[in-house]
Structure formats: C-alpha cells, structure tokens
Design a protein that fits this description.
- With 318 residues, this protein is an alpha/beta fold.
- The protein has a single domain (7-300), classed as Thiamin diphosphate (ThDP)-binding fold, Pyr/PP domains (Rossmann fold).
- The protein has ten helices and eight strands.
- Strands 2-1-3-4-8-7 form a six-stranded parallel β-sheet, sandwiched between helices.
- Strand 5 and strand 6 form a beta hairpin.
- Helix 1 (7-30) packs antiparallel against helix 9 and helix 2 (44-52) runs parallel beside helix 7.
- The radius of gyration is 19 Å and the shape is globular.
- The model is unreliable at 1-5 (pLDDT under 50).
Length: 318
C-alpha cells in the first residue's frame, strides 16, 4: 500500500473500525444477544475529525450515539461490546448499556441518553477545570434535536458569560428521532445561534473528515488561547434509523440516496485513491482487518461473565 502510514489512511482505518463495530452491534441485537441501540452509521467523519484535534488533557461529554466518539478516542471495542452485553469486563462493569458508557482513563466523562443532558453537565465540568487550573478544554457532542432544547441556550449563555473552555459540537444529522430538522428548527443553521452569545459559530461539512479536523483544530487553538467557548455545527446524516430496529419508512428515499452517495468512508476512500495512497485491495484489507478485530472483540464479550449479584448496588449513588 502506498502511503500506508499516512494520517489520512489512519483516519480511514478508524472510520472503518467504527462502522464495523456498529454493524456487528446491530447483528448482535437482531440475534437477541444485546438490547437495542442507537447507531452513528454515516457520522464517522465527525467523530474521527473532532477527536483527532483533541489532546490528552481534554475531556469529552457525548450523547446516545457515542460509539464513534469513544472508539475514535481509543476505547477498546472488546470492553465496549462487553459493556453493551452487560458483562463485568465492560468499561462500567456491564451496568451502563450502550447509552451511558463513561471511560475515565480516556477523559470520557459522560454519555447521556437524555436529549441535551450533556449540555447541562458540560458547564460544570469546564468550570471545575478552570477553577482547579487544569490544562485542556472540554468537548461536548450533541445533536440538532438537543439544539432545540432550552438547555442549549442556557449552556452557551453561561459558558460565554464565564468564559468556559468548551468546544460545542453539534452533529446535525438532519433527523430528531422521527422528525426532520426542518419541522423543528426555525433557523437553517444551528451555528448561527452562537452570535447571540458573543461567541464564534461555524458550519462545516461533517462528512469530510479533513474539513472537520481542520475546523476543530482551529477551534481548539482559539479556545486554548482565549478561554472562550466555540460552536461547531457539522452537517452530516445518520444512514440507519433512529434506533435498532427502525425501517426508516418515514425517510424520503431521494434524500437518503443523496446522503448515501456522500458516505464519509466512501468519500475518504475516493480522496485517497485520487492521490495514489490507496488501491481497492488496500481498502479491502482495511475492511477485513477491522471485521476480524471486531469479531474477536465480540467473542471476548460473549465469553465474559455477567456481574455477580452482590454487585447489584455497587456504584449506585442515588
């Protein structure tokens, strides 16, 4: 493979791994091996692009479509499968499912299934960092549905007022559960709301991983230099339903076809082919390697024990 060590190929590998993980998770759910989940299939470039711009001192809060963010940050798919399947070897000892995973050692503070829940928490996390004089910023991932919540405006207002080092990342995937964003958002752009709070907001092609990383790096550098928050809106699309199973019967076929043609993995594959850094056999090898790793991870989880009954109330604080 020409340029196998290149940064772009590495990004492709991570995006393919995320896709393979979530496709295997869907298969496990269909087989009754785990509960339903919300995938981020089609949004891999937003996860890999933003997380690539973060440093080891930075923290993350995310939402119910979190697998891509965690894997991009370096989470072990074996422990993620174990968590989703309720096994003791999972990151939270099998108690969180797919919607509430936290990974302290990677700086992943929270995965919230409450729409906008992470927006209500991120100000406190960032304030704590500031008061303790700790290095790093806090990245907060949320969707366009959460941008319709009052907490979105409250969070941005407080962050701007107190100059909290937060990178707000809106993954605008066009759908709020079963409601299209056009039916719920009066404004065309979520990023436009930033101006009301005196902070910068940008809208970026969320299916172009390099555009995402470039914008995220610039935002992170600005936040580090000024201490002020920023808002990135990443225009993307979820190619599967709101949750599993979901037949997407409510989705306009032409719209889905348009976004399928803009699959971020296929776009990056084509970019690499155009510059001579990838051939078809190389792409096949990347897919094969990802599938094999994911299969081993799923088997690890299946072979892991469930938590002991005595652990039922441990780690429960309320």
């Amino acid at each position: 493979m020409v340029g196998v060590g290149s940064d772009l190929v590495s990004k492709l590998e991570r995006m393919v791994l995320i896709r393979a993980y979530e496709e295997r998770l869907v298969a496990l759910q269909q087989a009754g091996a785990c509960a339903g989940t919300c995938t981020s299939v089609g949004q891999e470039a937003t996860a890999v692009g933003v997380v690539s711009a973060l440093g080891p001192d930075d923290l993350m809060l995310t939402n119910h479509r979190s697998a891509g963010h965690l894997l991009a940050r370096g989470a072990d798919p074996s422990r993620m499968f174990a968590e989703v399947m309720g096994r003791s070897t999972g990151y939270c000892q099998g108690k969180s499912g797919s919607l509430h995973i936290s990974v302290k050692e990677l700086g992943v503070i929270l995965t919230s299934t409450i729409v906008g829940g992470e927006l209500s928490m991120v100000t406190g996390v960032a304030l704590s960092k500031s008061m303790l004089g700790e290095r790093g910023i806090v990245a907060c991932f949320f969707g366009d549905g959460a941008a319709c919540e009052g907490i979105f405006h409250e969070s941005l207002n407080l962050a701007a007022l107190w100059r909290l080092p937060i990178l707000y990342v809106c993954e605008n995937n066009q759908w709020q559960a079963f409601v299209h964003r056009r039916e719920a958002l009066a404004a065309e752009s979520v990023a436009a709301h930033a101006a009301a709070f005196g902070i910068e907001g940008r809208t970026v092609d969320g299916n172009d991983v390099m555009a995402v990383e470039t914008a995220a790096r610039a935002a992170v550098e600005t936040i580090r230099a000024t201490g002020k928050p920023m808002l990135l809106e990443l225009a993307t699309y979820r190619l599967r339903g709101h949750y599993e199973p979901d037949d997407q019967s409510y989705v306009d076929a032409a719209e889905l076809a348009h976004w399928q043609a803009r699959d971020p993995i296929l776009l990056l594959k084509q970019r690499l082919r155009d510059v001579g850094q990838l051939e078809e056999r190389d792409f096949d090898a990347i897919h094969r390697s990802a599938r094999e790793r994911i299969e081993r991870a799923a088997q690890f989880a299946a072979d892991s024990p469930f938590p002991a009954a005595a652990e039922l109330l441990t780690d429960v604080y309320a």
